[in-house]
Amino acid sequence: xxxxxxxxxxxxxxxxxxxxxxxxxVTGTGPALVLAHGLGGNHMSWWQQVAHFSSRYTCIAFAHRxxxxxxxxxGGPDPxxxxxDLAALIEHLGLGExxxxxxxxxxxxxxxxxxxxxxxxxALVLAATTxxxxxxxxxxxxxxxxxxxxxxxxxxxxxxxxxxxxxxxGARMAExxxxxxxxxxxxxxxxxxxxxxxxRARLAAGRKRAPEELAAAGxxxxxxxxxxxxxxxxFAADAIAAVVPGARAxxxxxxxxSAYFERAARFNAIVGEFLDAAA
Length: 279
What we know:
Blueprint: E1 10-17, E2 20-28, E3 32-36, H1 47-53, E4 58-62, H2 82-92, E5 98-103, H3 106-114, E6 121-127, H4 142-163, H5 170-176, H6 178-189, H7 196-205, E7 221-226, H8 235-243, E8 247-252, H9 259-262, H10 264-278
Parallel strand pairs: 3-4, 3-5, 5-6, 6-7, 7-8
Antiparallel strand pairs: 1-2, 2-4
């Protein structure tokens, strides 16, 4: 189901937070669905999800602190602040129960928010992310697969960089859907001044949790992985789901790190089915 034109009316706003201003957009009507973007994006990254879900959900897409059009943060954003920002935004908008959809970097705030057990989280979707869960703490045999996967992923990333292809998109998107790849790069370019490597280092430092800890979220959890992801090991989704009651993992074929962007129809169908079941 896609949204009718009347439900696409947007309400734009900003939330003042310590040291920054958070930009957000509210579209649609129905239960709240909050969307937390990844390192290569901002609130605009969710255009295909907002258009799809806003006929039956109130979609709240925001830009993380330090990501345009939210305000810049001196020294760059600290992902450790993301959960507080998320909680403040939910409170600011007066939301009751919420569903949370987080991709890649967005998973850091999402996992930490989920583990606060606020009583507001109805369902959690983690797309191409383990958030603050450390992949090095996966159980065997997945843990032993990490080194070989990381080595192969590094080689692929280097080759993509040589070809001018964004690693979060991958060769398949660039070759089969060049317009999507170009759009992704345009969105990413809005944060060209941001030191992404510094953010990546902070994200890595924030990975301290064991997979089993996610069980404390106390809500249905869906992990979505693109089979060709070279940023997050796809098998990590299965390993986490295996030790978290109420969680399950789904893979999307012919998709890289940004399945929500590259294979939106399939991604939206999977997420929609999950959210409907959690209602």
